Amino acid sequence: MPRAVAGILIECDESIKAMIVKIDKQHNHDFIIENIDDKHALIKADRHEELKELLKKDLKDTVREPEDSSESE
């Protein structure tokens, strides 16, 4: 008998979507219900907040802060 799973539809850039797919793979496919296309996915509603926190952590680790360009030459 089929079971219903509550989900949240997300839309994001391809780069963010790739990070979400990577996080999902690292956590035994515990977040994504359906990978729709390059910009959309259906995420398990009860894991949404955890995914957001993991994504924030990944972004903080990979995105560099812009260098201060106020130095005089």
Automatic annotation (TrEMBL):
One GO BP: transcription initiation at RNA polymerase II promoter
Record SMART domains: Tbf5
Complex and partners: Component of the 7-subunit TFIIH core complex.
PANTHER family: GENERAL TRANSCRIPTION FACTOR IIH SUBUNIT 5 (PTHR28580:SF1)
Protein's name according to its UniProt entry: General transcription and DNA repair factor IIH subunit TFB5
Subcellular location: Nucleus
Major localisation: nucleus
Signal peptide: none
Source superkingdom: Eukaryota
Record keyword Transcription present: yes
Name of encoding gene: TFB5_3
Sorted UniProt keywords: DNA damage, DNA repair, Nucleus, Transcription, Transcription regulation
Record's function text: In NER, TFIIH acts by opening DNA around the lesion to allow the excision of the damaged oligonucleotide and its replacement by a new DNA fragment. In transcription, TFIIH has an essential role in transcription initiation. When the pre-initiation complex (PIC) has been established, TFIIH is required for promoter opening and promoter escape.
Similarity comment text for this entry: Belongs to the TFB5 family.
The UniProt record lists the keyword Thylakoid: no
Assigned GO CC terms: transcription factor TFIIH core complex; transcription factor TFIIH holo complex
A Pfam family this chain is assigned to: Tfb5
